[in-house]
Structure formats: structure tokens, C-alpha cells
Amino acid sequence: MDPANIDDLIGGGAEETCRMSAEGVRETWSTRIGFILAAVGSAVGLGNIWRFPFQVGQEGGAAFMIMYLAFVVLIGFPAMLVEFVVGRKTGLNTVGAIREFAGGAWKYLGGLFVFIGFVILSYYSVVGGWVMRYIVGSATGGYVGPPAADGTPQAAQYFGKIAVGWDALFFHALFMLVVVAIVALGVQRGIELGVKIMVPAIIAIFGVLAVYAFTLSGAAEAYSYYLSPDLGYLLENWQSIVPAAAGQGFFTLSLGMGVMITYASYLSEDENLAIDGGSIVVFNTGISILTGLIVFPILFSADVDPGDPGAGAIFVSVAEALGGIPLGELVGVLFFGTVAIAALSSAISLIEVVVSYAIDEFGVDRLTATAIVGAAIFVLGAPVTYDTVMVDLYDILAAKILLLTGGILLIVLVAWLSADEALEELEKGVGRLGSNGIVWLWVVRVPVLIVLVVSLALGVIEYADFLTGDFAEFLGNL
Ligand code: PFF
Questions:
Q1: Domain ranges, residue 463
Q2: Of 52-61, 200-209, 377-386, which range is least confident?
């Protein structure tokens, strides 16, 4: 079926999968792979490529890796199924879905999801803008050159210039404009068609780059830093590694703010949710690992410390390293071009949470909803272009507090308060789950919930430290 033609879908015997919204018939994915790719497209993004390497670098390399992998499989996957169940059962946007699942004060949870979407996309778009800027910078060799008189590498100077101010604001606007243009086209013509091109492109280009990185001189050292965990380090530093791994796990899988609720709401009932969820987790984790296999050999080959630069990681260290390796400009354009594609396919999922809410609840048409929401997010993100410390202000809050809070509340609602409905929904498309469903339920109810609550508490402490430390200092210098 031509994915561009929604009338085919509506008239093509798929009526039972179409649901009503204020706009009329609600769209669905045209194919199963369309849904999986869209969810993978949402999962794979700046979280894997920009955020992941600097979390690995800050949290001790392979020690973090191991914790992160455990989180993704043991916590992320079951938590993803919780969102799928809610989305498919209700066939509604996040706010409507939560309202249908539970009344009373729970309706505010849907509101929290929409709010988180706003916060994340606002700074995500600024970082996405940096990436777009770096495509140009790679082509023109902007970040390659001799260090400044005080020894600051050229890449760091370049990042310092483009990461804040008018440049950053312009590219933030450009990024949001592209996102709005894609989402305004709709679920099938915009999102589904877009990701069908984007996701295979990411995998192909990153595969080539990983092979290239393998040939670099620092590859062996990089692999051992990245892949051989130091358990002593892990035990000593678990208080910072645990919330980092939990936050990264939720962020990278797009959990905790209803993206997967929204995407699963466009899904039909004969879909096996567990297999879909498993494929998404495997794809996404594979791309994170692949990113490490590209980024760390590049860093080690150029003698750059992977723990150094925080939010500037790929922009300072990788860029600096690119200046010192053969074919660096071409690799740079490919690398940042791919990152831009990945960032866009995630950003469209973030904005879709808010847009679908506006369409379903207020009866606004898609174009108007997307344009208004896009403009509001641009405004909220504008302060982030003032100073890079603002990225931490938004990012720690989002990943280590808001997403975990959203995830915890949703699990309480679904796995504790609506368990029968949840199990029944999970069974659709799978046949009888037997004891597997019960195992899932109890895993989510107890260990997942405990780990998330502990991570959240540690995250709150870390954020308080940040606010009274680095951020207070920044405000003091204004
Ligand atoms: N998963 C995306 C990434 O790793 O870049 C970011 C993201 C998308 C986070 C959607 C949260 C979300 F709800």
C-alpha cells in the first residue's frame, strides 16, 4: 500500500483500525515496519550520539556501559511495554489515554507528559541546531586549525562561538522549522515516510564509519576503555552511575513522557507488542554501541580525553579529533549529517505528543497545531542559546527527574491500579501469554519501580547540587 495515501488505508478494509478523533478518522500506521521504524527513529537520536558518549565519558567508561545495558534490558524494555499497552488500548493521545485509564487527579499525569515534551524538545532543538551548524562547519573546515595563543584548540573555539548567541538561535529556529514541516504532513506521509528513509540511512552510514574507526591507531585502546568494565569503579561510584544509567535508559528509549503511548495509539490490535518492543530496544542499543565504536577510536586516536568536555563532547572532542585524521572533513559531513537525521526523527516524535494532544482534545487542524506548538517550543528553548550551562539546567531536569517521574507514575497507574486491563491488552496479538504476562507485571511492579525511585532520589540530589553549585556560580557572574 502506498504509505502516502491515507485514503487507501481508510477505504482498504482497515476500518477497524481507524479510530475517531475530533478531526474525524484517526490515522494509523500503514505497515507494521512503519511503526517499528518510527519508534526506532524516535529512540535513536541525540540521546545515542550526543548524550551517550558524554555520559560514558563522565561516568567512567565501561563501568557505565554495563549498568546502562542492564537498565535498558531489565528496566527499559518492561517499561516500554507499559506505554504500548496504554497507547494501543485507548487509541488516544497521552492526555486522553491517561484520562481513559484512570480518572481523578491522574489526568494531570497526561499534562505532565505534554510538559516534559515541551521541555525536552526545547533544548533538544538547540543541540540539533548545533549539529546542523556543524555540517556546514565540517564542509568548510571551520573547526580545523591551529590552537589559540592560550592553547585552546580550534574546535573548542569554534564550539564556543556557535553554541551560543545569534548563530545558535538561528539554527535552533531552522531545526524547529524542519520538524514542524515534517509533522505537519501527518502520520503516514510525514512521520512514517520520513523514518523509512532516515533509519536505514543512519544504520548504513554509521556502519561505514565504525569500519573506518576500526582502522584508526587508537582503536584498540578505545575498545578496552569502552568495553572492559572495572567493577571496583562501579561499586565506588554507583550513586552517580545509577541515576545516569536510568536517565540515559529512559531518554534513549523515549520513555517516561508518552511518546510510546502516542505511537502505539496508531497501532492495530493484531500487533505483538512484546516483539515490537524487543526489536526497538535491540535496534536502539545497537546504535548506541555503534556510536561508541565510532566516537571512542576517533577520540583516542587524537589523544583527546573522553571524560573531558560534557555537553560539548561530540562538538569539541570529536570535531578536534576529526581535524587530525585522514579524510576528516568528509567523515565530519557524514557524521554530523547522520546525527542531524537521527535528531530530526526523534524530535518529530517529541512534538507529536503535544500535537496529537492538541488535535484530539481541541479539534485544531494538524497544520495549525504543529505551527503553534513549534513556535512555543522555540521560545522556551531560546534561553538555552544564552550559555551552555543552560543545557545542563534543562537536561539534568529532563532526564534524571522528569522522565523518571513520568515513568514511575505511569507504572503505578498501569501495573498496580489497572493490572487486569494491562494484561488483557498485552495478550492481544500474542495469544495467551500464560505466566509470561504475570512475570512482566511483577517485574514492573517491584524491581523496576524500586530502581526507578532510587534513581530519581539520587537524581534530585544531583540536581540540587548543580543548582547550588555550577548554576549558582553562573547566575552570580551574570
Ligand atoms: N530518544 C531520543 C534520543 O535518544 O535522542 C530522545 C527522546 C525522544 C527522549 C523522545 C524522550 C522522548 F520522549
A1: 6-472
A2: 200-209
